[in-house]
Amino acid sequence: MQIKELVYLRLRDALIEHEYAPGDSLREVALSARYGVSKTPIREALVRLEHDGLVEIAPYKGARARTYTPDDARELFEARELLESEGLRMTADDQGAIARLRANVEETRSALAAGMLADVSARLDEFDDLLLAQLDNRLLAGVVEKLTLHLRRLGKLGAGRARFEESIQQHEQIVDALERGDEASARRVLTAHLGSVAAAQARALQVVVAREQ
Asked: Could you read off the pLDDT of 162-197 as tens digits, one per residue?
């Protein structure tokens, strides 16, 4: 893997994991020292991340980690609901896909029981990925990829054991309904699940916005 690609991926992951909080300055000199590279791959990575929407670059001010408004979060979740609902529809008649969702729920429960919260978070994200993968649409692939980056970053807000337990329960209810052949119930649970996640993240986002003011 080329250095510039590695730097881009590492910085992208650092942003998603909130190693840089919304509004944090991203100075090329400091980033060069952190990643042990020259400023050129850092600069290229920042430009790519600006295109992804994870970084904001202002003339004479430099780059900073993207901040989100409540409207940003609402629009992201509206897009997520549209795409995951369609993914759910396409999953309903795919027994292999339903089995993969069931396996995911069981793995997530095991990770929670073991106190492996980072793994729980990754498995919850994987559940969403499994639904979105059902779309199998090359034209939507870029949209889904960019949307996922933002949802991963927002997902770190309001995350915790209680939130994880509720999400696992809702995921299990979705799979239960799909296994019964009850797509309508699965869709209702999915809508309720996304609404509860969005509400939790909106509350956490309000705290972040208040700190910036």
From this structure: 889 999 999 999 999 999 999 999 999 999 999 988
Domain span including residue 32: 3-65
One domain, residues 208 and 116? yes
One domain for residues 11 and 116: no
Predicted structure pTM score? 0.86
63: helix, strand or coil = strand
Q: Give residue-wise pLDDT tens across range 26-79.
A: 999 999 999 999 999 999 999 999 999 999 998 888 999 998 888 888 899 999
* d(C-alpha 26, C-alpha 62), whole Å: 7
**Residues 113, 51 share a domain:** no
Q: Which residue is associated with the tokens 């609402």?
A: 74
Contact 163, 193 (CB under 8 A): no
Among all chains, which residue has been given the structure tokens 């670059």? 57
What's the Rg (C-alpha) of the chain?
A: 19
Cα separation, 201 vs 157, in Å, equals 6
Give the C-alpha distances (Å, rounded to integers) separating 185 from 8, 79, 124, 148, 165: 41, 21, 20, 25, 20
Distance CA 205, CA 176 (A): 32
DSSP string, 177-191: HHHHT-HHHHHHHHH
